[in-house]
């Protein structure tokens, strides 16, 4: 068993892909494959199910990953203690975010304060961010309305209200606010299931005893904005996600004021890492200032 083999295995387990692990380790995919295969052959184990470019952990692989994560976290702490990263002059932080609007200002502030720390950012929906943090594919997450978990630290950043986005020529474009019931008979454009926007909206619709009549489901906020702009229907976004576009008009929804709680999340086991601790501290400063 070699350190390089464990490092390659751990990277593939975190990334769920040999090619992405190779990018993380600055190696070629064949080099990573050789390291993992050697580890499997030495101990007679199958650590991954390989399918369609994905690497899914087997039961043996998951048990090993639980141990390698702890091992490499301790190694990172030792490196931080012995090197300039203890003063955050260097290091690496992986950030998972469910959208750029809340994440990017915080990322920019962190980069200005700690220019020596390399940042990598992955974008997904709220559920994928939560799973990335729990699976240790990301160090810190910026997401919304995250469900509580004994393994997680959750810090609130800000509140947002949901808005209905209508085409500029729509009869409702003259209004500033609207109730959910008034929207249900319209052609609606919804985010995909698993997104925070869809989850918050579905809950409010259920609580009001309403039901969608006509709907189109799209997989990103950008697609929703464009679909509304070309007249396909009425979409739902949070207020910070609405950019200036004279093709559309945003209405506050009465039942969904302050319905979105933006958060920074991380594993409790990671909070003592200096880069993670610094990011969470900055988020708390930002929340306090706002």
From TrEMBL:
PROSITE patterns referenced in this protein's UniProt entry, alphabetically: HTH_LYSR
Segments traversing the membrane: none
Organism, scientific name: Kiloniella laminariae
Protein name, per record: LysR substrate-binding domain-containing protein
Family to which the UniProt record says this protein belongs: Belongs to the LysR transcriptional regulatory family.
Residues covered by the HTH lysR-type domain: 1-58
Keyword Nucleotide-binding: no
Pfam families, per database record: HTH_1, LysR_substrate
Keywords linked to the UniProt accession: DNA-binding, Transcription, Transcription regulation
């Amino acid at each position: 068993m070699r350190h390089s083999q464990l490092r390659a295995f751990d990277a593939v387990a975190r990334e769920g892909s040999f090619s992405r692990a190779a990018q993380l380790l600055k190696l070629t995919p064949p080099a990573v494959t050789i390291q993992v295969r050697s580890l499997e052959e030495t101990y007679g184990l199958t650590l991954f199910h390989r399918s369609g470019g994905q690497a899914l952990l087997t039961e043996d692989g998951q048990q090993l990953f639980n141990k390698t994560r702890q091992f490499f976290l301790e190694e990172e702490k030792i490196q931080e203690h012995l090197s300039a990263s203890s003063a955050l002059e260097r290091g690496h932080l992986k950030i998972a975010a469910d959208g750029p609007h809340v994440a990017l200002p915080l990322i920019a502030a962190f980069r200005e304060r700690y220019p020596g720390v390399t940042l990598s950012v992955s974008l997904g929906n709220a559920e994928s961010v939560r799973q990335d943090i729990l699976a240790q594919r990301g160090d810190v997450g910026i997401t919304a309305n995250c469900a509580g978990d004994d393994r997680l630290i959750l810090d609130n950043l800000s509140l947002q209200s949901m808005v209905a986005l209508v085409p500029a020529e729509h009869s409702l474009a003259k209004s500033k606010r609207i109730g959910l019931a008034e929207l249900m008979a319209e052609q609606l454009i919804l985010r995909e299931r698993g997104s925070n926007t869809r989850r918050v909206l579905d809950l409010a619709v259920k609580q009001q005893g309403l039901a969608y009549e006509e709907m189109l489901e799209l997989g990103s906020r950008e697609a929703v904005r464009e679909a509304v702009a070309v007249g396909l229907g009425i979409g739902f976004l949070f207020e910070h996600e609405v950019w200036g576009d004279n093709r559309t008009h945003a209405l506050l929804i009465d039942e969904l004021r302050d319905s979105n709680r933006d958060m920074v999340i991380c594993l409790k086991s990671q909070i003592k890492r200096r880069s993670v601790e610094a990011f969470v501290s900055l988020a708390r400063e930002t929340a306090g200032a706002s």
